[in-house]
Amino acid sequence: MYKVTVDKKKCIGCGTCVAVCSEVFEMDGDKAKPKTPKTDKECAVEAEGSCPVQAIKVTPAK
Ligand code: SF4
Fold first, then answer.
1. Total structural domains in the chain?
2. pLDDT tens series, the chain, 62 aa
3. Nearest residue (CA) to ligand 1, atom 2
4. Ligand 1 shell residues, CB under 6 Å
5. For position 18, which CATH number holds?
6. Which of 25, 52, 56, 61 is found 20 to 30 A from 31 (Cα to Cα)?
7. pTM above 0.85, yes or no
C-alpha cells in the first residue's frame, strides 16, 4: 500500500496526475486531490514522477 498526498499549495491544477492515474487522483476545483488517502495502485508512483511541480508524495504504507 501507498500513502498518497497532494500539496495543494504547490499544485498548479495541470491535470496530469488524473490523466496518468484516475483511479487515485481527481480534480477538486482547480487543484488535484487523492480519492483515497491510501492505495495499492502502482500508477500513483507514476503520477508522483509526472507531476511538474512535485506536489505529489507517494510513500510506502501498511
Ligand atoms: S500533476 Fe501535480 S500539479 Fe498537476 S494537477 Fe496533479 S498534483 Fe497538481
1. 1
2. 999 999 999 999 999 999 999 999 999 999 999 999 999 999 999 999 999 999 999 999 97
3. 51
4. 6, 11-17, 32, 51-53, 55-56
5. 3.30.70.20
6. 61
7. yes
